[in-house]
Amino acid sequence: MSGTDERTTGAVGIDELLERVRSGYRRIEPQDAHEAARAGEALLVDIRYAALRDRDGLVPGAVVVERNELEWRLDPRGSHRIPEATSHDLRVVVICDEGYASSLAAESLHRLGLHRATDLIGGFQAWRAAGLPVLPVPA
């Protein structure tokens, strides 16, 4: 241990960080996300890694962008953006497995100017538990 006092470094634990991040935007429930995507009002972005997608399946219509590429793919001004990333006004709903990593990802998108970015409460597991559609991964 370096002897540096956490109070002087501004360090926080992950629970406090999640609370701070989530207080900056309104998260979305699975049914609301499903309806927004069906109405063309939101882009669902699945950031789960391949093993989880292979194990559990896919959210129909969601764009798969693994977490380590998210900012590059969704930055409307970026040279590596996906075709759907056309505006900072895009409503993005980030989906991870249980709704934790997606909160940090949504906050990162806010820093890029995607002010309508949010994440799915409970992640993919809540989506599936709500009885929403899930596609098997093609063999």
Q: How many helical elements? A: 7
Question: What structural class do you assign from the helix and strand content?
Answer: alpha/beta
Which percent bin holds the helix content? 25-40%
Sequence stretches where pLDDT stays below 50 over 5 or more residues: none
Instruction: Give the biggest beta sheet.
Output: 4 strands, parallel
**Distance between the first and last residues' Cα:** 48 Å
Number of domains: 1
Count of DSSP strands: 4
Integer-rounded radius of gyration: 16 Å
Q: How confident is the prediction overall: mean pLDDT?
A: 94
- Percent strand: 5-15%
CATH class: Alpha Beta
Strand order of the largest sheet: 2-1-3-4
* String of helices and strands: HHHEHEHEHEH
What's the shape? globular
CATH fold field value: Oxidized Rhodanese, domain 1
CATH architecture: 3-Layer(aba) Sandwich
Going by CATH, the homologous superfamily would be Rhodanese-like domain
Pfam families: Rhodanese
InterPro entries: Rhodanese-like_dom, Rhodanese-like_dom_sf
Domain Rhodanese: 38-136
Organism: Streptomyces fimbriatus
